[in-house]
Design goal:
heterotetramer, A mainly alpha, B mainly alpha, C alpha/beta, D alpha/beta, B: mainly alpha, ABC transporter involved in vitamin B12 uptake, BtuC, two-stranded antiparallel sheet, C: alpha/beta, Rossmann fold, 6-stranded mixed β-sheet, 17 helices, binds adenosine-5'-triphosphate, binds magnesium ion
Chain lengths: 349, 323, 472, 285
């Protein structure tokens, strides 16, 4: 008798245990699915996809399309957060790289690849600047990057001379808006970047070093990890990602808007990384889940836009849903729920 | 004798005085007390928020909701006064209470659900701005005689300057903040939690309760800022104080407080806020910078003074380190 | 388990037996799921550590749990400040702090930040703090790890006095000598279960050990002394006139391959400083370090490690473990760092290495992917040691390697040290335990006031000789 | 002293340039301050203009309320304040005059033109400016007030595009998706040209012909919108005159000479159509 019950419970418990083990990964994914589900109920046709001229068309594609720049930035941000840092300057870097792209396209006859390289280079330069302030001068990351956050837009405006510089370039336009194999090209770019980053992080020891430095710099330094260099590279990478995103955003509207490009994007990027389970106190980061975090935020934005809600409600709805997602993810809520669950099990037994 | 732990504050003070001295040297108008008292009045709202933020940062947290809170409280106050006809004092009481309560709720979510302050308060930032929109989209004047009377209080000083009600309120709140931080058990608990929250718990610090109190305090201070801002402008505007959270954080950090918690002083925050004010005043006194040069100048001066402060601290440490 | 007033009880068990956990349950840090606790005949249920304090249970937890960024005074008076007009009076607080420090025999400046003092001093401060409220029950979790003999004697006389005052004391340690010299009774834990409570006077050492480890003593061959006559081979490390102002007076030191050099001295005598400077963790401002004929660049740890150095720091929590990372990651960290990021150790190889070390050092962990922060203190120490053992350095610097390690593993570690040195490795070991130093060291350098005051060689090495040179 | 809101759009930059150029032409020493969209910075700037003892202050207020006390201070020291491009909700005696267009009127003008163009029969999507900004609120209200009179004209969707191109594009995309197909939308009313330009891109990408399938109507009159009109991608724009420096300085001079000055010098711009786009574009380039 006793034995039988025992095997029963193990059987019941084992999928739960499995869930338990991957809970961290599951929470954001479940949140995303829930938001999609609710939106689909509120806005019929939200999940609808059509094939037009060999590419997919529909709100879901929009989410991917619109989420791309944030996703790329969030990728860099997650890496920086892993080192116990933060990069507030990404919005400004987006503006700078967009400005470089636009001005070089309009004012010079550089080939497109060179323009893109220059834009990416400007991002790397910004990353280097942040990295030096943080790792060499030991300025707290939030202030160090705040400096570029303020000054960076000034630099971008100086480059564009305060105007919105519009440009025409087929290649850039393709990066911004065209499709390849049914999906937007920029989604492919982001996907490639994410995959490469994940592979580099996990297949080399870089990921380990990064998390180690973020969790305990002193201990990491003592085992011979070059913490400074690593932190510096994290900011370089973040600058690179922001620049990439800046090119895409400029290509998107075929112009560089120094004042507004990527405005407040840093908050979305940080939010995504944190929704994915990263701690701002450094340590473990989850790159793939960060992308899920971005998708949650973008789905929310797109859903609000298509729902026909008056504009002044946007923020309240966004706040409420973020709080809900957070509470769902909190281990404490899970604890409460599992206690309830256990109680119910007891009753049924 | 300068204690090693006070060094950043002294460095900040020196930086402030150098900056101010430069202004006096460069511009004649700077020598009036008017410029100084204007600094007190014009940066009062920033400094008051930053004082609340200091406690949050000392405990190792962060509060991004303060800017929105200021706008929300202002709009709420205006609504209570103009639409419901409440006396401003009652409206202020209600608004401050609501602010404190919202702060406490964020604290509860952070402490009892183990969520990161950054993102809970980010949600708060969206929420309060959104609530402000829901109450009122327009900017509304608050034309109550009581409010006008408050904003007209003025204690003249020699040299064209004078203390406004707002400046005095800020100085009072500053003194309260300093006492709270260094002379009460609550303050010590804040430092302990910021230093090492795990150890603090083992030492018997009620970490969760204190955390709730910290965010409630930040809510209170930013609600008071909302009130001050409403009196300052005799109006309320749902888009007011956008981005003030970052300025406040910068003020705290420039004042020598470590973002990782546990180290810093409220008085440093005051200096940090004043330094930001002087930077702006210098730029307006100059008046020749266009939009982008303004941004570059703000960033550049910020960098320069942070590096200067760091340099002073390192230099002094080398000189006073134990033998 | 029950404890009378005026009794000193030892709580013993291997690393990871559950001693610290038991204490944390007792004081309400962890939630318990069964059982009751009576204090003075009343059922109590501490909600958290603060509540336990108010109930009269005063605790010094295993890792130093004070606030490093606060001053000593602030740490000592946190939660029990003296007030004037409702506000904290720092004058009174300072006075109270001085009085408390005097109790444990410390004469230090309490206005300085806690982390400007060494781990051992911090340990004493934590004890002082536990004495500050009128407790009925005092719990000390490994307070003597890294204290030197004098400090321990001071602590013991204090404990005896408290016992006379009618306090109950629970005392966790891995030093059996201490158990026999101070405690009245012993409770042994094994794998989270109580094996029983015994009268100290009636329990022979051998039996106690077999209770703790669960097997008979025969398996633990006594540690044998070194064959000191064996001439070491070539010179491995040469330190010439290495020093740093206000940190360490310049010293000279040689270590040969296949030789263990011990560092002895009192608290704050400068042992840790010697280790740090030799390794390069702190940049020296004069002198030079030569390893295997290469002059090391000051301030570059990577070059030191690449040339063949390893360093196991004293402060496990701050400088050793990366709490969030797993046991496996923590263990391979140093090896990986020396290989560089581009050449990762294959997972199979990692598992093999880690598995072997877990077995060899008897590290108690459910699996190698558990975050190291969740292991017991002693097991963390073993992981950190293993981190360096797998790098096979030519020269290994160990600062208090056996701190908080149980007797079984203690023994194992001494054996490993001896083996390594037989294989030609050079070791520099700082330890507060003269007994163990004497067992494995070929030479002992004695430190005092940040000076090297003596170097004992070969047959000169004995506890007596070391104590004598310190006293002189 | 001139306290400008910021440099958030192309229009604002040209306003700044125009006023600076005007001051230089007249040989005035202009102290310029950029408030980065923050009222508190503007108040500080005006205060420090006062403490520097300038002869007159130009203020482009970011918001209508909250100026009473600094304006009083200026008045006490007899420094004339001219409001440019927006008004304030303060006692008119506190400032000299306001040189500005009327946002409400712009909204109404747009609505009237659209009503005439479509015979009072149109489903409109609206791209609002930043939530809470006076330009957005007034243009929306002015537009709505006229639309109300036409039972067959409806604003079917209205969302904020934050006055930016990217915002306009993203919101327009979602409008197109949400409406399923573009035939349901007859016109787009954007609170500024930049959002309209973004929306035009969105339409083109969705296979909708801007200006043909959907009427594109916006406000500001920046060069790029004229370019779009030349390319037949936009239908109309209402100019928001950026050249406010001249009348503003004139007013200060007149005041010094003791003359009375009107409280509101209107600077409303006309509505431009594609036929004149080429000349206008050339003029502005
Ligand atoms: N925070 C924690 N989370 C999960 N498991 C833990 C945690 N702390 C301790 N454990 C586990 O509980 C067991 C008992 O640990 P405990 O710290 O009580 O051992 P101990 O007897 O004090 O050993 P030591 O002598 O090494 O200090 C260990 O196996 C450890 O892995
Ligand atoms: N008795 C003391 N009085 C004042 N300060 C002390 C004393 N002992 C240690 N310190 C402080 O602690 C710091 C660390 O000392 P150090 O690490 O050299 O000790 P140690 O010899 O390694 O001993 P242990 O490792 O046993 O603590 C020193 O910088 C010193 O300032
Ligand atoms: Mg233990
Ligand atoms: Mg030591």
């Amino acid at each position: 008798m006793l034995e039988a019950t025992q095997t029963m419970t193990t059987k019941i418990m084992s999928p739960i245990n499995l869930l338990h083990k991957h809970q961290k990964a599951l929470a954001p994914i479940i949140s995303l699915l829930l938001i999609l589900l609710v939106t689909a109920i509120i806005t019929p046709g939200f999940l609808h996809l059509r094939m037009i001229d060999g590419h997919l068309y529909g709100s879901l594609i929009d989410i991917l399309h619109r989420g791309t720049p944030t996703a790329i930035v969030a990728l860099g941000m997650a890496v920086v957060i892993g080192t116990r840092g933060i990069d507030l300057s990404v919005g400004a870097v987006i503006a700078i790289s967009g400005a470089v792209t636009a001005v070089l396209t309009v004012n010079t006859d550089f080939p497109v690849w060179l323009v893109i390289l220059c834009a990416l280079g400007s991002g790397l330069l910004c990353g280097l600047w942040n990295g030096i302030l943080v790792s060499v001068f030991n300025i707290q990351p939030i202030v160090a990057t705040l400096i570029l956050m303020v000054a960076g837009r000034g630099i971008a405006q100086m480059i564009t001379e305060g105007q919105i510089v519009t440009f025409h370039s087929d290649t850039l336009n393709a990066i911004g808006n065209e499709f390849f194999l049914a999906f937007p090209i920029r989604v492919w770019i982001a996907l490639a970047l994410v995959l490469i980053t994940i592979v580099i992080m996990r297949k080399t020891a870089l990921g380990l070093f990064l998390e180690s430095v973020g969790a305990n710099v002193r201990a990491s330094r003592l085992v011979g990890i070059e913490a400074r260099l690593l932190v510096l590279s994290a900011y370089l990478f973040s600058g690179f990602c922001a620049a990439m995103s800046g090119i895409i955003l400029a290509a998107d509207i075929r112009g560089a808007d120094a004042n507004n490009a990527g405005l407040w994007l840093e908050l979305d990027a940080i939010l995504a990384a944190v929704l994915a389970g990263a701690s701002l106190a450094g340590g473990r980061i989850y790159l793939a889940l960060t992308i899920v975090g971005v998708l949650i935020i973008q789905t929310l934005t797109t859903a609000i836009l298509t729902s026909g809600l008056p504009a002044q409600y946007n923020l309240v709805v966004k706040a409420a849903i973020i709080l809900a997602v957070l509470l769902v993810q909190s281990p404490k809520t899970r604890q409460l729920l599992s206690q309830l669950f256990r109680k119910n099990m007891d009753y049924s037994a | 004798m300068i204690n090693e732990r006070n060094l950043p504050i002294f460095a900040t003070l020196i930086v402030f005085m150098m900056l101010y001295g430069f202004g006096m040297y460069e511009y004649r108008g700077f020598r009036d007390t008017l410029v100084f008292t204007n600094l007190l009045t014009d940066n009062a709202f920033l400094i008051v928020t930053a004082i609340g933020m200091t406690f949050v940062i000392l405990s190792g947290g962060i509060d991004l909701s303060v800017g929105s809170m200021i706008a929300f409280i202002g709009v709420l106050m205006a609504y209570l006064i103009t639409s419901l006809g409440l006396h401003p004092l009652a409206a202020i009481a209600v608004a401050v209470l609501v602010g404190t309560l919202f702060g406490a709720i964020m604290g509860i979510i952070i402490a009892y659900f183990d969520l990161q302050a950054f993102i809970v308060t980010l949600a708060g930032m969206f929420l309060f701005r959104g609530l402000a929109y829901l109450i009122n989209l327009n900017s509304v004047p608050i034309n109550h005689p009581f409010v006008t009377a408050l904003s007209d209080i003025y204690v003249p000083l020699p040299g064209r300057g004078g203390l406004t009600f707002i400046a005095m309120a800020m100085l009072t709140l500053l003194v309260i903040g300093i006492i709270l931080a260094r002379r009460t058990r609550f303050g010590m608990n804040v430092y302990a939690i910021g230093g090492d929250s795990h150890s603090a718990a083992l030492l018997g610090v009620p970490v969760k309760k204190t955390t709730v109190k910290i965010y409630a305090l930040s809510g209170l201070y930013s609600a008071l800022t909302g009130v001050i801002f409403a009196i300052y402008t005799s109006s309320a505007y749902p888009l007011a104080a956008v981005g003030v959270e970052l300025d406040a954080i910068a003020a705290v950090v420039i004042g020598g407080t470590l973002l990782s918690g546990g180290v810093g002083y409220v008085f440093g925050t005051f200096l940090g806020g004043m330094i930001q004010g002087v930077i702006q005043t210098l730029i307006t006194f100059d008046g020749s910078l266009n939009s982008w040069w303004t941004k570059l100048a703000v960033g550049g001066l910020l960098l320069f003074f942070i590096l200067l402060q760091k340099g002073i601290v390192t230099w002094a440490k080398r000189r006073t380190s134990p033998t | 388990m029950d404890l009378r007033a005026g009794e000193i009880r030892a709580l013993l068990g291997e690393n990871g037996a559950g001693k610290s956990t038991f204490i944390k349950v007792l004081t309400g840090v962890y939630e318990r799921d069964q059982g009751t606790i009576h204090l003075d005949g009343q059922i109590i249920q501490a909600q958290d550590s603060g509540h336990a304090q108010r109930l009269g249970i005063s605790t010094v937890y295993q890792e130093v749990n004070l606030i490093p960024s606060m001053s000593v005074t602030e740490n000592l008076t946190l939660q029990q400040q003296d007030k004037t007009f409702g506000l904290i009076s720092w004058k009174k607080a300072q006075k109270r702090a001085m009085a408390l420090l005097a109790k444990v025999g410390l004469d230090i400046d309490p206005s300085k930040q806690l982390d400007s003092y060494s781990i051992a001093i911090q340990q004493l401060i934590a004890i002082a703090r536990a004495l500050s409220n009128d407790a009925k029950l005092l719990i000390l979790d490994e307070p003597t790890a890294s204290l030197d003999a004098g400090e321990i004697q001071q602590l013991f006389s204090l404990m005896k006095q408290l016992k006379e005052d009618g306090l109950g004391i629970i005392f966790v340690t891995h030093f059996l000598d201490q158990v026999y010299s101070i405690t009245d009774s012993i409770t042994v834990l094994r794998n989270g279960e109580s094996i029983g409570t015994f009268d100290t006077a009636q329990l022979p050492r051998a039996e106690l050990i077999s209770h703790m480890v669960g097997k008979s003593l025969d398996d633990l061959a006594p540690a044998s002394g070194q064959n000191r006559s064996q001439q070491p081979l070539e010179t491995l490390l040469t330190i010439k006139n290495l020093g740093k102002q206000r940190f360490l007076q310049p010293i000279d030191l040689n270590i040969h391959a296949g030789e263990v050099v011990g560092l002895a001295g009192l608290l704050g005598s400068g042992r840790t400083e010697v280790c740090e400077l030799a390794y390069g963790a702190t940049k020296a401002d004069q002198g030079e370090t030569t390893l295997k004929g290469h002059v090391l660049t000051q301030g570059s740890l990577r070059s030191a490690i690449r040339t063949g150095m390893g360093y196991c720091p004293e402060d496990r929590k701050q400088d050793g473990i990366v709490a969030e990372l797993s046991v496996r990651e923590n263990m391979i960290l140093a090896l990986q760092a020396s290989r560089g990021w581009w050449s990762p150790i294959p997972m199979v190889k990692q598992k093999e290495l880690v598995e072997e070390m877990i077995k060899r050092l008897a590290i108690k962990t459910p699996d190698m992917d558990k975050p190291i922060g969740e292991l017991s203190g002693g097991n963390q120490q073993k992981v950190i040691l293993a981190r360096w053992l797998i790098t096979h350095p030519d020269l290994l610097i160990l600062d208090e390697p056996t701190r908080g390690i149980d007797i079984g593993a203690h023994h194992e570690i001494i054996q490993i040290i001896q083996e390594l040195c037989a294989q030609g490795m050079g070791l520099l070991v700082a330890s507060s335990e003269l007994e163990e130093l004497v067992v494995f060291a070929h030479r002992v350098v004695v430190m005092k006031d940040r000076h090297k005051i003596a170097e004992l060689d070969g047959e000169q090495v004995s506890e007596h000789a070391i104590l004598q040179s310190i006293a002189s | 002293g001139f306290s400008q809101i910021g440099s958030e759009s192309g229009w604002r930059t040209s306003e700044t340039e125009s006023i600076k150029a005007e001051a230089e032409r007249r040989g005035y020493d202009l102290k310029f301050s950029d408030a980065q969209q923050k009222q508190e910075n503007q108040i500080k700037a005006v205060r420090s203009f006062i403490s520097q003892g300038v002869d007159g202050i130009l203020l482009a207020p970011v918001v209508e309320t909250g100026w009473d006390s600094v304006l009083k201070e200026a008045k006490r020291l007899d420094i004339p304040v001219v409001l440019v491009d927006r008004g304030v909700a303060a006692d008119p005696s506190l400032y000299l005059t306001k040189v500005a267009s009327d946002f409400k009127e712009e909204g109404s003008l747009a609505a009237s033109w659209l009503a005439a163009e479509t015979n009072g029969r149109c489903n409109i999507v609206e791209l609002q400016g930043t939530v809470g900004s006076s330009a957005a609120i007034d243009r929306k209200d002015g537009f709505a007030a006229v639309i109300e009179n036409f039972p067959n004209m409806n604003v079917i969707r209205s969302q904020s595009g934050d006055f930016t191109r990217a915002g306009g594009k993203e919101v327009m995309e979602s409008f197109l998706k949400a409406e399923g197909d573009a035939s349901n939308i007859c016109a787009l009313f954007a609170h500024n040209d930049d959002m309209a330009l973004g929306a035009v891109l969105a339409m083109k990408e969705a296979g909708v012909e801007p200006a043909k399938d959907i009427i594109v109507l916006s406000i500001d009159g920046v060069p790029d919108i004229f370019k779009a009109m030349m390319d037949h991608e936009a239908n109309a724009t209402i100019e928001l005159n950026p050249h406010l420096g001249g009348p503003a300085f004139d007013a200060i001079l007149a005041h010094r000479d003791g003359k009375e000055v009107d409280k509101w010098i209107k600077a409303n711009g006309p509505l431009y159509l594609p036929d004149t786009a080429e000349q206008e574009y050339a003029k502005r380039k």
